[in-house]
Write a structure and sequence with these properties.
Blueprint: E1 4-9, H1 13-26, E2 31-32, E3 41-46, H2 51-69, E4 75-80, H3 81-93, E5 99-101, H4 109-114, E6 121-123, E7 146-150, E8 152-153, H5 164-168, E9 172-173, H6 176-188, E10 193-197, H7 206-209, H8 214-221, E11 229-232, H9 242-250, E12 254-259, H10 267-272, H11 279-292, E13 297-304, H12 311-324, E14 328-333, H13 351-375, E15 380-390, E16 393-398, E17 409-412, E18 422-430, E19 435-439
Helix pairs in contact: 12-13
């Protein structure tokens, strides 16, 4: 009788892909369950990016350890980013953990679980080199019509506040052939929408082909039958080329959407962050995108309270947000991460100030989003159907809504539909983030 394994995913979409791969590899020798209480073994794929993520990972590990300590005969394993970053500490501080495996050992997890005895296991690669490919088994956690596709791993950007290069290693792209084969397979499974993810999607190919090859990859992917929407996530602004913009503008399958992390709008702060663009260059890029792709949805992220951020510099950020009127933004209060250059910078901003500035930016964005959304009332847009909530009601998303992080559309339908269908919808109402609509007859 096969032992049961539960895989718990924490963190970003890139981590979700890793968890799906872990589950796929484990499914060959174990029975997979979604309920940790039913499992003989529990694998927690942790996140260790910022303080909140670390806290969530620790809380989840403690919860699973408590389940084990309640008398249930279970084994608990910590894997992924937190295990890579703090593996020795986890192994020492949590003796109840049966194993700690770093991010570079994901492919070793099945073997560790299969040979598990009374001895605890600690593994961590200092040099990261693992990359999944189109042959790697994968059990998707997302709806049947949607999938994330990770096109690269690691990062070479070295932003001064970020630990990702230490956790994930140097940037390494999957081959174009591997990605195309995976997407063909996904299309054969009924996937209609894919979201391309990486720590930096726009630098795809630089290590393998000595050139940015995201546009070439997209030209291959749009030819795949069955795929209707391709969404671009994590596009660093300085690598968004005119060629890429032209593709978004002209290729119907590529969503009129771009996720463009900008992080700040004061040039002195951007320089201290070790970002490669200026506020003026970001403004020019946004203008270029809007001119080439009318109605494009632009998402970004910003950090408040970076070390040394003065009130004047914060106002530069707030003014930029008010001026640019981006469709979607996420704001993070700066997290002081050990072993990063920013952690040792002078004039650390007090946590309460970081948080207050974050709230001020989000308050401004709520007003902006409300104005933008109201302008969409009466428009006719494409909506992908996600979940039926009543005989004539569905919840869906527009091209401007990435799963889980953006808004949804609640709509009345005229006909019978299946999840994953894309229909024409007239928007009838809206608030800051969600919209209501009705199917066109």
């Amino acid at each position: 009788m096969k032992k049961k394994v539960a895989v718990i995913n924490l963190g970003c979409p890139k981590n979700q892909v890793d968890s799906e791969v872990i589950t796929g590899m484990l499914a060959k020798g174990f029975e997979i369950t979604a309920e940790p209480s039913e499992a003989d073994m529990i694998v927690v794929n942790t996140c260790g990016f910022i303080e909140d993520a670390k806290a969530e990972s620790i809380d989840t590990l403690c919860e699973m350890i408590n389940l084990k300590n309640s008398g249930a005969q279970k084994k608990v394993y910590a894997v992924g980013c937190l295990a890579q970053r703090y593996g020795e500490e986890l192994f020492k501080e949590f003796p109840e953990l049966d194993g700690v495996l770093g991010d570079g050992d994901l492919d070793k997890i099945p073997g560790v679980l299969e040979s598990s005895g009374s001895e605890r296991v600690y593994r961590k690669k200092e040099k990261q080199d693992y990359l999944y490919d189109n042959e790697t088994p994968r059990v998707r956690f997302s709806p049947s019509f949607f999938a994330y596709v990770k096109i690269a791993e690691g990062c070479d950007n070295r932003c001064s506040y970020c630990v990702i290069p230490q956790i994930k290693g140097s940037y390494r792209s999957r081959t174009m052939e591997s990605i195309v084969q995976e997407v063909r397979k996904l299309a054969g499974e009924g996937v209609k929408e894919i979201a391309l993810v990486a720590q930096d999607t726009t630098r795809y190919g630089i290590d393998l082909y000595q050139a940015y090859r995201l546009p070439d990859l997209l030209r291959e992917l749009v030819e795949i039958d069955g795929i209707q929407w391709i969404r671009l996530m994590y596009c660093y602004p300085e690598a968004v080329s005119d060629e890429l913009i032209d593709l978004i503008a002209t290729e119907p399958k590529i969503c009129n959407y771009i996720d463009l992390p900008l992080q700040h709008a004061d040039n002195a702060i951007l320089s201290k962050m070790n970002r490669r663009n200026t506020a003026e260059e970001a403004e020019t890029l946004i203008g270029k995108l809007r001119e080439a792709v009318p109605g494009i949805f632009i998402r970004s992220t910003f950090i408040t309270g970076f070390p040394g951020e003065t009130e004047e510099q914060f106002q530069h950020l707030l003014s930029f947000v008010n001026k640019m009127k981006l469709d979607r933004i996420g704001v993070f209060a700066y997290s002081q991460e050990e072993n990063t250059p920013a952690a040792n910078m002078a004039n650390q901003v007090p946590p309460e100030v970081r948080e207050a500035r974050k709230n001020a930016v989000m308050a401004a964005q709520t007003e902006i989003a409300d104005q933008i959304q109201q302008q969409r009332v009466g428009q006719i847009i494409r909506v992908i159907l996600e979940e039926q909530t009543a005989p004539d009601e569905w919840v869906g998303r527009s091209e401007g809504d990435a799963p889980e992080i953006d808004g949804q559309i609640y709509l009345k339908v005229q006909k019978k539909h299946l999840a994953g269908e894309i229909i024409q919808t007239r928007i009838t109402e809206a608030d800051s983030y969600d919209m209501g609509g009705e199917e066109l007859e």
